[in-house]
Design a protein that fits this description.
Elements (H helix, E strand, L loop, with lengths): L2 E5 L8 H9 L10 E7 L4 E8 L4 E3 L3 H15 L5 E4 L5 E9 L2 E8 L13
Parallel strand pairs: 1-2, 3-5
Antiparallel strand pairs: 2-3, 3-4, 5-6, 6-7
Length: 124
Amino acid sequence: MPHVVVPVAQLDDVDVRRDGAAIRHHEMFSPKGANVNFIEKRGTKNIAIRTYERGVENETLACGTGVVASALIFAATETADGPIGVIVRSGSELTVGFKRAGENFRDVTLTGPAEFVFEGTIEL
């Protein structure tokens, strides 16, 4: 899943649906597009994130792969060691852990709350 990470000064000023769609459909990511993650620095080891997901074609409350991609980009550009705290649109706080190996990352983990949100039955 390709991800684009866009640092912004203020998340609340971003029109995630409009700007995310424009980036998601950019010819650079053709033909399938990319998820777009807007991140705001919230300290030396913390970010907030809002994500536009392809397929959903709108902002989602959270995206695990987007959180990990964004945290690692943040860590690389800010030269931050883990863990990185991430606040997603739903308000949940997630943590991305990792070990640095030169310019690479290893042993990457994502932790946070999990909620049971649906139960259903389908008859075929």
